């Protein structure tokens, strides 16, 4: 099968199209023929070598951890799925990623793709959608009527988080550049702050939850706008100062995504009910050039929604 992989850490020039053996599935797994995958910041961060201590893998490494396609083969002890089913998943984090024509996926991590959802849209959801879900609900415990700030609301994770928080009954603030204000309002944001012209910490206070997808000064200043005792900061970029939460008398949680098929099925149900919309910023064909172009775009940090790769 065709795959795009890296054989050493570095820039986009390290992404090379290679031939690999089609994965051999084990008991409890299925083989998915991919129709689409997506590019996330973790992909190029790993490519650059930033995560080598956490994910110490041998080369070649096939990046990518979003899968959408059709089941080609079913392993032993798989009863819920059959050949021909349209599925999507966030597979386990291994060096055998989804920049490839086929991927082996543990059956319990799969979800059906709703009839009203394309494979391209489905590929955009798993990593970003599960990240938003776990940040808001698993760690953030968002409740109806709470006031929530979601940073970078037009981004791949942020645009899904806005919709999930609104669906849970929260009042949602978000930060976005002026050109994305209309988009985030359409997604459900109640109030939008232009981070280029206004400091959110000067405008907001007494919030129940802040979802930080940015880090740096944004994270530092987020502590200031939370309610004492009950306020929660949830971040996907790591907690920079472990003492800050105690200083501000709030809770802080760092999120590292856990693949979860049951949560993904709940996201799929929201799409099926037209309660969750996926925004696609750009689409590239599966090829060495396509993956390189997608990485270059992702690295700019100016992406509204998701970047997908089609097969």
Automatic annotation (TrEMBL):
This is NADP-dependent oxidoreductase. The keyword Oxidoreductase applies. Gene3D superfamilies: Medium-chain alcohol dehydrogenases, catalytic domain, NAD(P)-binding Rossmann-like Domain. SMART domains: PKS_ER. Keywords: Oxidoreductase. It comes from Shouchella lehensis. Signal peptide: none annotated. GO terms for molecular function: oxidoreductase activity; zinc ion binding. The keyword Cell inner membrane does not apply. Residues 10-309 form the Enoyl reductase (ER) domain.
């Amino acid at each position: 099968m065709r795959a795009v992989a890296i054989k050493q850490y570095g820039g986009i020039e390290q992404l090379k199209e290679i031939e690999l053996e089609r994965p051999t599935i084990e008991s409890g797994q299925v083989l998915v023929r991919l129709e689409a995958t997506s590019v996330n910041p973790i992909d190029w961060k790993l490519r650059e070598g930033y995560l080598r201590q956490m994910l110490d893998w041998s080369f070649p490494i096939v990046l990518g951890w979003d899968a959408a396609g059709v089941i080609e083969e079913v392993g032993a002890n798989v009863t819920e799925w059959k050949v021909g089913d349209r599925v999507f998943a966030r597979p386990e984090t291994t060096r055998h990623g989804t920049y490839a024509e086929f991927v082996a996926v543990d059956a319990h991590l799969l979800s059906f793709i709703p009839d009203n959802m394309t494979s391209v849209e489905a590929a955009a959801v798993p990593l970003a959608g599960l990240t938003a879900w776990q940040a808001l609900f698993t760690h953030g415990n968002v409740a109806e009527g709470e006031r929530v700030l979601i940073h970078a609301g037009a981004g791949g994770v942020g645009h899904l988080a806005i919709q999930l928080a609104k669906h849970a009954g929260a009042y949602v603030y978000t930060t976005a550049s002026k050109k994305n204000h209309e988009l985030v309002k359409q997604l459900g944001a109640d109030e939008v702050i232009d981070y280029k012209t206004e400091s959110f910490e000067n405008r907001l206070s007494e919030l129940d939850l802040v979802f930080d997808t940015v880090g740096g000064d944004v994270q530092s200043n987020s502590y200031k706008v939370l309610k004492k005792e009950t306020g929660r900061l949830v971040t996907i970029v790591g907690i920079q100062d472990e003492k800050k939460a105690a200083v501000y008398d709030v809770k802080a949680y760092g999120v590292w995504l856990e693949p979860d098929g049951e949560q993904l099925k709940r996201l799929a149900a929201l799409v099926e009910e037209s309660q969750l919309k996926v925004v696609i910023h750009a689409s590239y064909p599966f090829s060495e050039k396509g993956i390189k172009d997608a990485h270059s775009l992702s690295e700019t940090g100016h992406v509204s929604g998701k970047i997908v790769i089609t097969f």
